[in-house]
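Table S2 (text version). Query chain:
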Amino acid sequence: MKILSTLVAFSVFASLSPSTVSAGSSKTNCLPYFLDCHGVIGEIYGDLLFLQPNGSSLYYAAQATPLNQSINGGVALQAVSPDWKIFEITPNYTPAFKVGTALLFSPSNMNLELSWERVHSSKTASKTLSTTADEGTLMIGPLFDIGPNSAAYTKAHGKVNFEFDAVDLVFGQGFCAFKHWYPTFFIGAGFTRIKQSLKSTYSNAAGTSIRSVRTHSTFTGAGPKFGCDLDYRIVSDFFFSGTSSFGLMIGKSQSGTTYKSDAPFLVTNNVPEPNTQSTTVPNRTQLIPSFEEKLGFSYVGVFKCCKVKFSAGYQAEIYLNAVQTIDMTAPQVIPTLATDATPDSGVYAVGFERTLSNFILTGPYVSLNIDF
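Corresponding structure-token output:
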């Protein structure tokens, strides 16, 4: 939400009027409503955000459905002709915030801004199968193992958690190249931390066989950011505002998956429950491109040497390949360590594959800037 940060501090910048010139100034400031009563102007601002975090891979369960028994003379063809339904968690819009401060240098049309944005959110989803004689036997399980190993499971529950923090320090320079158009170009550095965890749990109707899979991914990095804020005066004190920025975050990515299983086999063989297994990627250098866009409207009011700006609009930002996981590849094989071992007593991988997902934030915002 550098966009927000940039727009806020820089729309201030861009909200200055040629008429606001200090008495002793040797140079007029062309930006609309730029306060010239001080050589250095302070600004504080706060943004209330309603953002929907999202990603490319929030699937928590797959359901296998056999061919209806009313077809083919009442013979269910589950073994050779199943269909599948994939269930995904859809995050809600959640309140978030962004706060910042800036120094505006008049009449040189420059500013220096520091901002912090924070978004923490979670969402759950669940699915319970109801088996009837006409439907045949249904099963639900993880995407990597929806075959016979998941035959016992009829319930699935998913929960995703998002944590996003971004700190930006940028320097901006405003220009007055066109009538009613006030661009401000900025460049600086940003710090970003993105964490996503997804937990899926599967159980049979009696609750005696339970499997859970939790994947987590954390990226922490920093890098350059640059872009442009553009304000257009619609009429009087009302403006149309937009901001575009691009960044390259370089940092460390950590990820892993934990598998837990509870099954009757474990109890009868004195194996501690739950049976816990894991895969881990402890440290990997990652380059994450980021894009941020913001469009909205603003109103500016000036009172002597104080200015108040109110803005509202919609924003979106995306961090490419910011979430990575190591997933199992089918098939999984059942161990031969015990003849009575059941498929739900553990997971047994033949191979793994790396999956990359985007991290996305979209939603409306309202912001308030105060210059003094």
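Notes on Table S2: The chain is about 5% helix and 60% strand. The longest strand covers residues 275-303.
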